[in-house]
């Protein structure tokens, strides 16, 4: 069984920030929801409550950055760019303030529906000059997101997982790199965030069916190592499938498409994710099935790419999850 | 650093420079000079504790935007002197007042007069809407309503570090229509940011015209006080009243001075253009000539010889 870690961010942030006077913890009335309530109680001097007022919070954080602080802003990701986009741009991104934007509940990881689901944030952030983007896909990445973000000379957008988070990897995020989870030669699968665990289930089932999968996990979306990706694309026979907890426009599917087009790569690309649609409120598993973000959707996408059918069912994929995820990762020392 | 001129002389000099610029360029931000000259003159000539400028008197050309690939980037804050713990900082929140702010820098001998000739020229750092890299600017404020929040964050950070320097924000009254202004005041009050000071040019004008015709804002003094600021309302052309307002005790709260002003002050012919005063562009050569003669007489200078 895969190990589940409870509230990894709570511990990680406190270990990282406590006692460093240049690090400030900002919150917009979602303190326990972002797992920083313990930090607030034990380190009140480093905690700033800014209330339900995100526009001010963004510019205020820019001012703190100007004063030499490195604010970590905590709220649901969607509240950190939709309403205060102008402030994010003018007060944080343009002047390259060292503000760390810790966006919780990425994509469909919340039952809160459209108003709570950040489904186009990566698209927005990729188009902002000076912005870096990190996304966590497991507990180890959540545990290392603070150091990783704080190593960047400028603003950083982080997609952070909360609550009970599986541990898939045993090495921290290294900014600018990508994880190679398997080195197959038929199809390249590129995932990030919660879709990586789905792809690991699909991968082991597909390998059982005789397909050789090369699987990349992206924790760093910007900056991005295009050459490394091209080398992996060159190593597979059929082409590429991307699967993301995000709309298919502007996220990692687009990132891969742009990389392929720029280099004139003549292979097919299948982009999976939210297809020009909003989601609605529901459980994560339900939403991932309903909107085609899960392991089964990935298998169907790979079948579309290769033109073959592998005869895999939902039961095959569920079985793969229990038996393979953890051991496969450990076997590859990731 | 203290100027030799009186603040009244600085204010007159600001208006003369903005007037000359507007006549030569067939238009400009004239009414902002009318309403705000005393406030900016007072800030730079008396109230602000600033060090000597750290940037050249003649502004450098545009040097690129902030990016990892532009390590030599700097803002225009050096015209206000260095950032030091005991010195004050100033943001011009309505960046559309840039022309008036640049004229002020010249009058207090922080920028060469040639700087104004670079205004709005391609490749120049002396931009029409003051940018971070424009003389006297430290942050982008062209999107109205963000200045006070940034000032509050900077002021909180400086208080936390034990710095004695204050953070001043020059504001415009149109900004009270933006919700962010109220978020900023409540946050500054909640966190006891009393090193934050603002002076607001309350000229009752905005881009579309008189504020009451665009969006009624009510009693902004009462609103600021209710949101937790100390607020004093004065005649913004009365330097004695402004000086007195700045001494208002405001422990644990930001201080906001409402400077009630006239957008025609010293240039009564501008009233012909009411209610579209935000940017005055002359409609004909005849109008330009008439304004030239009239305002020159009001300001005690010869009409501008703009044909040459």
UniProtKB/TrEMBL annotation, chain A:
InterPro entries: PDH/Transketolase, THDP-binding, Transketo_C/PFOR_II, Transketolase-like_Pyr-bd, Transketolase_C. Signal peptide: none annotated. Keywords: Thiamine pyrophosphate. Its cofactor is thiamine diphosphate. Residues 3-167 form the Transketolase-like pyrimidine-binding domain. Coiled coil: none annotated. Pfam families: Transket_pyr, Transketolase_C. Transmembrane segments: none annotated. The keyword Heme does not apply. The keyword Membrane does not apply. Belongs to the transketolase family. This is Transketolase. It comes from Limimaricola pyoseonensis.
TrEMBL record, chain B:
Its cofactor is thiamine diphosphate. Gene3D superfamilies: 3.40.50.970. SUPFAM superfamilies: Thiamin diphosphate-binding fold (THDP-binding) (SSF52518). Signal peptide: none annotated. It comes from the Bacteria. Keywords: Thiamine pyrophosphate. Pfam families: Transketolase_N. Residues 82-261 form the Transketolase N-terminal domain. This is Transketolase. It comes from Limimaricola pyoseonensis.
